[in-house]
Recover the amino acids of this structure.
């Protein structure tokens, strides 16, 4: 009976983590470029009191044996990189990636981070930067006298300078991809970092080698589906409740046993 208490407790702990993941998804339903997460579970240790195949007599054996599981645990929280809804903003520096790929961002420590959020701005020097001021890599600097900015699907950045009728190319925005994007480490602030399991980044111009293309004046929204998360929340809540009832029932059975003494 004590075993049932700890088994049910592990189930409650698992569902608590599940609810934490769902809550984080819902909290970021309006975060640009956000990718939802999913908790993966597995059963844990089994206590074996009879081994399947044990001989009971010459020519006879136990067909199934006896194994009792000891609960569940969370084995992974995986990011799902499906594309979110793309909506128009009309802002020249808003970029959406139509397909696979990540923008590259230079961090203050010299490392490179990666993001799906294309809500870029200009800093005081004209560089294209994130909302936290981290510059795009390779660096794109927009001249102060630029009157119009044009970014092609393949990442070519052109500007019309004041008094000129022909565009001037000032650089190319590159994208990068990973063999296992789910292995990237979340840094917060819409940023991801390379890990050993993500594989090395492979940078190229948009539209090449399986990378998506850019859409200027658009942003990719979160890929969180509110209805799906609500259904998952209800299912998780019911699973939590039924595990708590298992604890209550096991406790009542222990009480009955104690009263027999």
């Amino acid at each position: 009976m004590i075993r049932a208490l700890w088994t049910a407790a592990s189930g409650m702990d698992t569902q608590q983590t599940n609810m934490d993941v769902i809550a984080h998804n819902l909290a970021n339903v309006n975060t640009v470029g956000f990718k939802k997460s999913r908790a993966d579970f597995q059963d844990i240790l089994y206590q074996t009191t009879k081994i399947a195949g044990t001989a009971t007599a010459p020519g006879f054996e136990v067909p199934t044996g006896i194994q009792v599981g000891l609960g569940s645990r969370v084995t992974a929280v995986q990011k799902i990189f499906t594309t979110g809804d793309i909506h128009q903003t009309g802002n020249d520096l808003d970029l959406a990636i139509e397909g696979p790929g990540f923008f590259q961002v230079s961090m203050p420590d010299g490392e490179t981070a990666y993001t799906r959020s294309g809500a870029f701005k200009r800093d005081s020097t004209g560089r294209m930067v994130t909302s936290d001021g981290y510059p795009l890599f390779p660096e794109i600097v927009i001249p102060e006298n630029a009157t119009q900015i044009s970014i092609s699907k393949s990442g070519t950045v052109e500007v019309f300078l004041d008094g000129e009728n022909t565009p001037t190319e000032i650089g190319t925005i590159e994208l990068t991809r990973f063999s296992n994007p789910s292995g990237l480490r979340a840094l917060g602030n819409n940023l991801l970092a390379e890990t050993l399991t993500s594989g090395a980044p492979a940078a190229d111009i948009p539209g090449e080698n399986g990378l998506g293309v850019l859409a200027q004046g658009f942003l990719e929204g979160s890929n969180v589906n509110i209805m799906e998360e609500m259904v998952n929340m209800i299912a998780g809540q019911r699973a939590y409740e039924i595990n708590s009832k298992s604890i209550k029932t096991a406790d009542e059975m222990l009480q009955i046993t104690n009263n027999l003494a």
Remarks:
- The longest strand covers residues 72-79.
- The chain has two helices and 22 strands.
- The CA atoms of residues 89 and 98 lie 15 Å apart.
